[in-house]
Amino acid sequence: MLIDLIKCHGSNNDFLLIDETDRNYKFDDFKRRDLALALCDRESSLGADGILFIRPSRVADAQYRIFNSDGTEASMCGNGLRCAGRYVCEKLGVDEAVIETMKANLKVKKHEAIFSDIPTYQVEISPVTFELKDLPLKLDQETLIQEKIPQLSEELTFTALAVPNPHLTTVVSKEQLESDLQTELSEKVNNPNDLFPDGVNVSFIRLLEKGSIFVKTYERGVGYTNACGTAMSASTLVTCLMGENELDQPINVYNNGGMVQCAVHKEGETYTIDLIGNATFVYAAQIDVNFTKEGILAEILEQEEFNEDTLYSRLQEHAKKYLSQF
Ligand SMILES: N[C@H](CCC[C@H](N)C(=O)O)C(=O)O
């Protein structure tokens, strides 16, 4: 089967984007899962943190589904939505669109470059909730905001929220960030456990200076990634709740893949978060995929480089230089 795809990334959180519209790929969710497992494997195939499937929508300009590299589907992916948003806007010849996601129809729009002339998009991260049942996190309480979870750690305090995928965040010191704490904790809650039956994205946050934070995330269904858009959005909201950052201000969120901006808005009791950052297209390819009993074999038939990564690497250099002072 011939499949056309685009390799893309948001803050070097990389994806394969496959547009199913006007194609008779006839994927079902088993095939989408198997494609993610096979094509995301960096040892044996193209390699990526996940696959973004673009599909027709009756309620928006397009539908977008995200499958992690372990084959599980997530309700939301912020870095991926910027890439999907750019793809749909450019396909429709518009600067803004609405994308149907699992839990909400979200606005995406072209944004002025976040750094030099890097293609930049702004996406809406929503719905946001602190109800533990929405992660789920099995504790005998409604919410967990700046509290300990003794079963996980005696030293860290956590905030749990869903945006709408599940996030467990904690503000840490440089030493704690550089220790094994995050790996031990993340592996515990992303293997069979009594707290997070569906797993959870685990983020360690460092406060840098007013208006700037650093976030490192161990992603459910992937492991460590260079950046996690929903985690950076959730982490920014947590630092606003702590009074460390202001609402309605674009906060610089640094990560191992570069930098994005997040602005938290509150209307009544409802939070939404704007996530602004690169939507970089690396290459377009046509692959020949064979679904065999032994698994999926994929061969790249054609590949066209977009040469946008050289542009993006300037932002990554800037971010590394900025972070070296902390
Ligand atoms: N691993 C996440 C989905 C991808 C989120 C991340 N890549 C982002 O940019 O938000 C989950 O299972 O909830």
Kindly describe this structure.
This protein is α+β, with helices and mostly antiparallel strands. The protein has two domains: 2-124 and 279-323, Diaminopimelate Epimerase, Chain A, domain 1 (Roll), CATH 3.10.310.10; 132-275, Diaminopimelate Epimerase, Chain A, domain 1 (Roll). It has six helices and 18 strands. It has helices spanning 29-39, 78-92, 174-178, 181-189, 229-241, 309-323; strands at residues 2-10, 13-19, 50-55, 62-68, 73-74, 96-100, 105-111, 120-125, 159-162, 166-171, 201-209, 212-219, 223-224, 251-255, 258-267, 270-278, 280-292, 295-305. It has an 18-stranded mixed sheet that branches. A hairpin with a 6-residue loop joins β3 (50-55) and β4 (62-68). The longest helix is centred in the N-terminal third of the chain and has 15 residues, at 78-92. It is globular, with a radius of gyration of 19 Å. It starts with a strand and ends with a helix. The mean pLDDT is 97. Bound molecules: 2,6-diaminopimelic acid. 2,6-diaminopimelic acid (API) binds next to β4, α2 and α5. It is found in: Cytoplasm. Substrate binds at residues 13, 68, 78-79, 165, 201, 219-220, 229-230. GO terms for molecular function: diaminopimelate epimerase activity. Pfam families: DAP_epimerase.
